[in-house]
């Protein structure tokens, strides 16, 4: 009963707006990992943290306790510098797919532990799993081999069970208790995994807008600054870009659709916004690795990034030449009038893709690899009445009405001249 008593005192300390001591934080995270603090107690504490916040010392200590709940990886002995990128999640965010091989092609090792999608935002592993044969599970010795191999240099895989296990349990709990949207909890969750992963440097892509966790630029700034501080204090060179997520990235949202678009980018084409963000993040990653004399735009255009993509996919069992899965049914949404597309809402498109089968309702559900939304116009584009605006892809045609409902009001055609929303909004560094 000592543990229960202590859990109550930790919860009431935070509930009453007081600071948690280092010993309280260490104890509660450790006892939760061991199962001594019950899920309902941790959920109550997460709600108290969401309502009352945590200061810089508390967040740093919480992050440290989450890291120490499991094993730390170390790639410090590799012959090349390591840099990772993490996005806080958005709609159509396939940037890791072209970015990891691009940065590897420029001489940096990219150990990228990624996640699966939940809700309206997609997950990198779900996208890559749409490539026939590709496997998300890679052992640490194999990761090391791939990172050290100059022809590969990047690995995108699932985190092992012993990487910040306290975060895995806590995140699943937050997801079902309305406690995801807390800056201290998001920052410590992301940074505990990234610091435990053993990367020397990190570039954060903090999304802001309707399709992101952070709807508001001030909140995004605070989240970015908190994460940059956590990384820097832990000895990981960390910088963040705030990037727009009012409208989806690129022209596809959905697993195989996004892989095809990423391959187009690696082949030197693809949508301008995906190319712009990929190159901007690659520049930041190279700078963090101390490389200033290589232009990633060239490595993308001349096929070097594509070579690394093919090697990286093949090294994880995938066939880079295999046809990608396609959905059985499509439904085309046409423009009702001519004009300029002035709005295409990321949340509406993300929700539609999810309902079509691209995402999952709960952890462990299967996804439809071919499902999603193809966007034939983006904000700023001129459209003509009757032209296809969106194509919905699904194996479950009964989902189409719900997807159409999600898109209701999500796009607006106006008469004013088009403006293209900016991608990179701000850079945050200490
Ligand atoms: N991603 C994470 O890993 N953790 C959060 O809390 C939110 C997004």
TrEMBL record:
Keyword entries, A-Z: Glycosyltransferase, Transferase
Gene Ontology terms: biological process: pyrimidine nucleobase metabolic process; pyrimidine nucleoside metabolic process
Gene3D superfamilies documented for this protein: Nucleoside phosphorylase/phosphoribosyltransferase catalytic domain, Pyrimidine nucleoside phosphorylase-like, C-terminal domain, Transferase, Pyrimidine Nucleoside Phosphorylase, Chain C
Gene Ontology MF, one: thymidine phosphorylase activity
Pfam families membership: Glycos_trans_3N (PF02885), Glycos_transf_3 (PF00591), PYNP_C (PF07831)
Classification via SUPFAM superfamilies: Nucleoside phosphorylase/phosphoribosyltransferase catalytic domain, Nucleoside phosphorylase/phosphoribosyltransferase N-terminal domain, Pyrimidine nucleoside phosphorylase C-terminal domain
Any single Gene Ontology cellular-component annotation: cytosol
Ranges for domain Pyrimidine nucleoside phosphorylase C-terminal: 340-414
InterPro entries the record matches: Glycosyl_Trfase_fam3, Glycosyl_Trfase_fam3_N_dom, Glycosyl_Trfase_fam3_N_dom_sf, Nuc_phospho_transferase, PYNP-like_C_sf, PYNP_C, Pyrmidine_PPas_bac/euk, Pyrmidine_PPase_CS
SMART domains attached to this UniProt entry: PYNP_C
Family listed: Belongs to the thymidine/pyrimidine-nucleoside phosphorylase family.
Quaternary assembly: Homodimer.
NCBIfam families in UniProt: PRK05820.1, Y_phosphoryl
Stated name of the protein: Thymidine phosphorylase
């Amino acid at each position: 009963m000592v543990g229960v008593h202590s859990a109550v005192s930790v919860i009431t300390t935070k509930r009453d707006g007081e600071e948690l001591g280092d010993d309280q934080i260490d104890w509660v995270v450790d006892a939760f990992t061991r199962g001594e603090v019950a899920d309902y107690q941790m959920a109550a504490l997460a709600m108290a943290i969401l309502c009352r916040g945590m200061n810089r010392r508390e967040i740093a200590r919480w992050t440290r306790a989450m890291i120490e709940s499991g094993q730390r990886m170390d790639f410090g002995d590799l012959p090349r510098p390591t840099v990772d990128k993490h996005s806080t999640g958005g709609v159509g965010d396939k940037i890791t797919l072209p970015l990891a091989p691009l940065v590897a092609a420029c001489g940096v090792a990219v150990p990228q532990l990624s996640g699966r999608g939940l809700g309206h935002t997609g997950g990198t592993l779900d996208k890559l799993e749409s490539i026939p044969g590709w496997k998300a599970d890679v052992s640490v010795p194999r990761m090391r081999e791939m990172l050290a191999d100059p022809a590969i240099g990047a690995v995108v895989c699932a985190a092992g069970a012993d990487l910040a296990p306290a975060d895995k349990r806590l995140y699943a709990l937050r997801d079902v208790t309305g406690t995801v949207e807390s800056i201290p909890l998001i920052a410590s969750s992301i940074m505990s995994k990234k610091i435990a992963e053993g990367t020397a440097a990190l570039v954060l892509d903090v999304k802001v807008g309707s399709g992101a966790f952070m709807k508001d630029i001030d909140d995004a700034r605070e989240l970015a600054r908190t994460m940059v501080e956590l990384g820097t204090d832990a000895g990981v060179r960390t910088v963040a870009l705030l990037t727009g997520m009012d409208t989806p990235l690129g022209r596809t949202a959905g697993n195989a659709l996004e892989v095809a678009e990423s391959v187009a980018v690696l082949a030197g084409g693809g949508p301008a916004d995906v190319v712009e963000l990929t190159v901007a993040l690659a520049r930041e990653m190279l700078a963090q690795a101390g490389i200033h004399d290589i232009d990633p735009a060239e490595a993308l255009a001349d096929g070097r990034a594509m070579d690394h993509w093919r090697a990286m996919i093949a090294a994880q069992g995938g066939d880079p030449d295999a046809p990608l899965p396609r959905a059985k049914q499509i439904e085309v949404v046409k423009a009702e009038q001519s004009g300029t597309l002035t709005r295409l809402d990321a949340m509406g498109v993300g929700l539609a893709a999810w309902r079509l089968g691209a995402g999952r309702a709960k952890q462990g559900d299967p996804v439809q690899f071919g499902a999603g939304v193809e966007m034939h116009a983006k904000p700023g584009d001129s459209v003509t009445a009757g032209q296809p605006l969106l194509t919905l892809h699904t194996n479950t045609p009964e989902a189409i009405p719900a997807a159409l409902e999600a898109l209701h009001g999500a796009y607006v055609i106006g008469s004013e001249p088009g403006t293209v929303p900016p991608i990179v909004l701000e850079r945050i560094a200490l």
